């Protein structure tokens, strides 16, 4: 059991990729597939950018790809095409990837309100969570892009849906930044993270870390 009493929190906020689903690599592969027709170098540069900026929406990342990697003026047709290519590449993976162990036990143990606040597409998230019988756990709601995590958290806090004490469970540097901006506690989950220097990051920022959600129920 980690040195964190998760039962003290009224609200738990979960990132999706790398926390609830083992889907980080699926997203990375999908970004490569969506852009490989521009050549390996550009596609790999995009994957590298994605991995360094975990938790940020595909909408922002695709705009970055067009403007900063392709060095083109923004083009709506190209933008929509790349988003569609990514969505096709990622959908099957999300329906088949591993689900974090211990969700049911953790829900029973915490008695708190649960939210998903993800960089993933909101409609896609809700469809996948419904199909995989996960939505029943998240009585606070399942939220994602195109709204950023900052916007979602600020909105739900302002509406008194997220109430303190609250805890964000994430696996990226952006997750921590979003939690800090929202003034809610944070714990880093590292089992599926794509942050190579997560140990240094946690130590530098004084963050608690656990391997996975299962650590809270063993």
Please outline what is shown here.
This protein has 218 residues and is of the alpha/beta class. Helices cover 47% and strands 14% of the residues.
Secondary structure layout:
Layout: E1 11-14, H1 24-35, H2 40-52, H3 58-69, H4 76-96, H5 103-110, E2 113-121, H6 122-131, E3 141-145, H7 149-158, E4 166-170, H8 173-181, E5 185-189, H9 198-205, E6 208-210
Parallel strand pairs: 1-2, 1-4, 2-3, 4-5, 5-6
Distance between the termini: 6 Å
Strand content: 5-15%
**Helical amount among residues, as a percent range?**
40-55%
Regions with little confidence, pLDDT below 50 for 5+ residues: none
Output the helix-strand order.
Answer: EHHHHHEHEHEHEHE
Q: What's the total helix number?
A: 9
State the strand order across the main sheet: 3-2-1-4-5-6
The main β sheet shows up as: 6 strands, parallel
Instruction: Name the CATH class of the largest domain.
Output: Alpha Beta
Q: How many E strands? A: 6
Query: Mind telling me the C-alpha Rg?
Result: 17 Å
CATH architectural arrangement of the largest domain: 3-Layer(aba) Sandwich
- How many domains comprise the coordinates? 2
Q: Describe it for me?
A:
This protein is α/β, with parallel strands linked by helices. Helix 1 (24-35) packs antiparallel against helix 2, helix 1 runs antiparallel to helix 4 and helix 3 crosses helix 4 (76-96). It has 2 domains: 6-23 and 99-216, 3-Layer(aba) Sandwich (Rossmann fold); 25-96. The mean pLDDT is 94. The chain has helices spanning 24-35, 40-52, 58-69, 76-96, 103-110, 122-131, 149-158, 173-181, 198-205; strands spanning 11-14, 113-121, 141-145, 166-170, 185-189, 208-210. Strands 3-2-1-4-5-6 form a 6-stranded parallel β-sheet.
